[in-house]
């Protein structure tokens, strides 16, 4: 298939590649950039495991083609901690509140909570549950994740 060039910024690093138009952003990040923290669960937009930030908004990378994010800025879970490895408030809060078990869903939750708190710095429980309603977790029962979102908003204020 005819390949197309795509240029984007991934976690602050300008990145260019030649890709098939049918390559999803999720596959691009995992296979072309080696950023395997973005997980694939359902691959059809239901589970949220593949959530990344595109120009700051939380999006499902399995539903976008890489060529659609040409000239845009993508942040994956690998770009959330500080360069020196210090965890973000959201990551620390997930650890503190036991918001993960197997961790498969966690990168998606980190991205969704990060975007949620940018838009709602002091969210109600309802806003947290609504903001995370597109992310599935098969292990935790969600209580720890909701507590972590609340705790992260406290840390950030
Ligand atoms: S893998 Fe993208 S939403 Fe499930
Ligand atoms: S921690 Fe296992 S799926 Fe969420």
Automatic annotation (TrEMBL):
Origin organism is: Mycobacterium simulans
Q: In which pathway does it act?
A: Alkaloid degradation; nicotine degradation
The protein's Enzyme Commission number: 1.2.5.3
Q: Which UniProt keywords apply?
A: 2Fe-2S, Iron, Iron-sulfur, Metal-binding, Oxidoreductase
Residue ranges of domain 2Fe-2S ferredoxin-type in the record: 4-80
Alphabetical list of InterPro entries matching this protein = 2Fe-2S-bd, 2Fe-2S-bd_dom_sf, 2Fe-2S_ferredoxin-like_sf, 2Fe-2S_ferredoxin-type, 2Fe2S_fd_BS, Beta-grasp_dom_sf, Diverse_Oxidoreductases
Q: Does the keyword Zinc-finger apply?
A: no
Put simply, this protein is called: Carbon monoxide dehydrogenase small chain
Q: Looking at the record's lineage, which domain of life comes first?
A: Bacteria
Q: Does the keyword Iron apply?
A: yes
UniProt-listed SUPFAM superfamilies: 2Fe-2S ferredoxin-like (SSF54292), CO dehydrogenase ISP C-domain like (SSF47741)
> Could you tell me one molecular function GO term of this UniProt entry?
metal ion binding
């Amino acid at each position: 298939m005819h390949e197309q060039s795509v240029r984007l910024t991934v976690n602050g690093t300008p990145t260019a590649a030649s890709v098939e138009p049918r390559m999803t952003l999720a596959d691009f990040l995992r296979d072309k950039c080696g950023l395997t923290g973005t997980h694939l669960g359902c691959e059809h937009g239901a589970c949220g495991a593949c959530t990344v930030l595109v120009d700051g908004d939380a999006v499902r990378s399995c539903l976008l083609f890489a060529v659609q994010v040409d000239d845009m800025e993508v942040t994956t879970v690998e770009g959330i901690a500080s360069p020196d490895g210090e965890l973000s408030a959201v990551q620390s809060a997930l650890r503190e509140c036991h918001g993960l078990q197997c961790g498969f869903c966690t990168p998606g939750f980190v991205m969704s909570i990060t975007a949620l708190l940018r838009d709602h710095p002091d969210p109600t429980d309802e806003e947290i549950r609504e903001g995370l309603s597109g992310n599935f977790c098969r292990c935790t029962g969600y209580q720890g994740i909701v507590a972590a979102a609340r705790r992260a908003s406290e840390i950030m204020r």
